[in-house]
Amino acid sequence: MSTRRKPPQNGSGAPMREPVTLDGTGRVLTPTPSRPKHIRLRAVADCHREAAKVYRDMRSGKIEPQEGTRLVYVLGQITSMITAGELERRIAALEAMSDDEDA
Known about the structure:
It is a single chain. This protein has a two-stranded antiparallel ribbon. The longest helix has about 40 residues. It is mostly helical. Strand 1 and strand 2 form a beta hairpin. Helix content is about 55%, strand content about 5%.
């Protein structure tokens, strides 16, 4: 029994290959990377969801732990900024209510 894996196949049964771009000289060119997906990070819950995704990607080996650590650090900083902004808005609303009661 063979343990070799078959290469992935397209719909016609032919093996799939990585796309290759050639210029006129026969050199292989690296395709332009696609634009990263926009990630909504407007609430603390958004940051927590993204941090969990990064953690799962690190555990599964999709990204290196060092890169995942960097990403989670930045997500933590964004979470802190969101929290500070929410606290600022709440304090301003309380101060406005207090000023209305004093008048």
